[in-house]
Amino acid sequence: MRTHTKKLKDWVQDAAREQIRRKARRQEKAGFFEREGGIGWRRKLWESYDAGQAWIVVTLVGSAIGLNAAFLNIVTEWLSDIKLGHCTTAFYLNESFCCWGAENGCPEWKRWSSFWFLNYIFYIIFAAIFAITAGVLVKAFAPYAAGSGISEIKCIIAGFVMKGFLGAWTLLIKSIALPLAIASGLSVGKEGPSVHYAVCTGNVISRFFNKYRRNAAKTREILSASAAAGVAVAFGSPIGGVLFSLEEMSNYFPLKTMWRSYFCALVATAVLAAMNPFRTGQLVMFQVKYDRDWHFFEILFYLIIGVFGGLYGAFVIKWNLRAQAFRKKYLTKYPILEATVLAVVTAIICYPNMFLRIDMTESMEILFLECEGGHDYDELCDRKNRWRMIFSLAIATIVRTLLVIISYGCKVPAGIFVPSMAIGASFGRMVGIFVQYLHESFPTSAFFAGCQPDVPCITPGTYAFLGAAAALSGIMHITVSVVVIMFELTGALTYILPTMIVVGVTKAVGERFGKGGIADRAIWFNGFPFLDNKEEHTFGVPVSQVMTSNVVALPAAGLEIRAIERIMAENKFQGYPVVDDVTSKILIGYVGRTELRYAIDRAKREQMAPGHAKCYFTSTSASTTTPSSSMPSVTFDTMAATSAQLNVDMSRFMDPTPLSVHPRLPLETVMELFKKMGPRVILIEYRGRLTGLVTVKDCLKYQFKVEAQENPRDDRTLNEGQERVWSVMHQVAVWFDVRLNELRRRLGIGSGPGIQLHSPISQTSSMDRGQHSAEDERPSIELEDRPRGRRGPDHVEVR
After folding, report:
1. Hey, where are the domains in the chain?
2. Which member of 115, 324, 399, 577 has the lowest number of beta carbons within 10 Å of its beta carbon?
3. Which GO terms describe its molecular function (predicted)?
4. Residue 633 CA, distance from chain mean position
5. What pLDDT was estimated at residue 11?
6. Rounded to two decimals, what is the model's pTM?
């Protein structure tokens, strides 16, 4: 079983350490002047390097992200096209490069067969192979590479630690498996995972620099900048990437971080443009230009598109979370089989529809285009096929929505940005074609009085563009960054106002059904200790009602090393308050578990301190409580050390000024302190005496309790429905297994192990949820006392 470390970084402590580091450098510089009388060129060069490390790091990170994005674009396009055919002149070319300059195919690009049904079979086989490969890579080498990663990255930037989530293996497997997952035809996108591999790149590169390896707060700046660069290369939108990082990813975004994010996104986008993966000068495939203006009567239809975006987001978020709950409850043991079956089912359903058959980015490129200019895909602009196109686009919208609900969250790299945009584009183009039909049917109507004669009045491609913006805003609940991203995609200043109208309506409708986008709901779903800035609460209670009163505290003087080790072995707390004595509980300071462990190990190693050596957290107590010995207390700077030294000074490892508040301080204010300052723990003291402590988890437990009381829910009906669905899936699997074994016997291959699906509900304790959690290797946190009514069916305990 893979183990995961889950704790919170203390940004207050990291900031204090950075101040100490800067102070030490200033003192060292002052001493250097006294010794040398001046600064030589080597010293100046070193100081310049130290001051410019941040810019070196963001330049390297941006360059690496741009190169990786170009590689992924090229590989994804080739894998997506290889399902449909191959290039006879060069097998490694995709269809657009093979037929360069041709509008509707070329003789050099051959289908796999001249028979439609055989092409259908090849399409399904390739989809299954790609999905199996991606699933095996993720399960065997990097389980954290599955999914989008945006919700986890939000928590990491806020201080949540997940060992390995941003590691080199995750970066490698995500970069390899992502094109395979996209090419398999699953209704998932690469834009969300682009943020994950970009942040992985920032984390891996920053680890080569001491300033970032030893300071998590500094690393957070690089991670925020990397997230901006990831969105920038995904959409070809550097400013939109910076705004996305500001609006969605980071709780704390000072001006310095914004400037570095801007520079990192600039470098990444410039490298991607230099690589020119599509050989068209476009940074993304669905980039388009509009040279027509819009009319005020079209605002009515823009409002319809905006309402669709809000309803789409609410619908997908609700049912995707239920699908995720079903997946965690029943499908945790079958990640590869699940991804393969989803890919095969998607291929079977999507191939007959011309808008579902092709890659989603390619479909958006087609739907965004104007009809004039010789661009026509399967007679999309033909008036005779108008109603057939409306029907086909409606089917594509409905089917893709259902596929997104069941596909997003499976154990392959999977994003939801582009699938949502493709759904919005399908709906928007459908509305645009219908409006165009109305205008041509009633050209003299007063409603269309703003149209000029003999000039195309309605541009259906702009409706597709606005539909994509609405769906993206609806699923993520972001506004400003969507407007800027769509503007940078089109370069159309005239369409900024319609985009703002659509996104504003989408936001208003979406907020009626719940706060936060799918990334925020995924954080709640997984139980991560994250306080969202978007939520506002009015509890009306003091922090004393939420705090932990039974606190394990360490006395400032006289506690033996073996006693401290016994206390640490009995619990997994991340730190301990230090009090004057256990009776008075006068607060002295706070010491973290990591610092305490390091101090004890170093005392044993360097001072040969025995287990009965006494520890002192204040230098004054160390000198006053050892009257029987004239020997000074042991510090780690002491050169001479013997086993007879029985006093260990740990004052340098204790924080003498921990963040503490009064017991009557409102809980809302304490939550704001956690959001803005990011401490690991806040101590509660009354007239100098320690009365308790509070953590983010304590705040969240109380929040869940209040929400469960305000919105009671009964999950029995939902659980019964899930069990019925699982029963049907089990029967289908058994039927398929029997037929497969019959086929094996007839062919003389021999019988294999077969497909065995087991329900965790009907099984014995050997198949309990604890084992499901062990297989699931995705991070989750159990918050004690979290009311069952608010857990939802998706909650997973990690033991």
Report:
1. 543-619+645-709
2. 115
3. voltage-gated chloride channel activity
4. 49
5. 58
6. 0.82
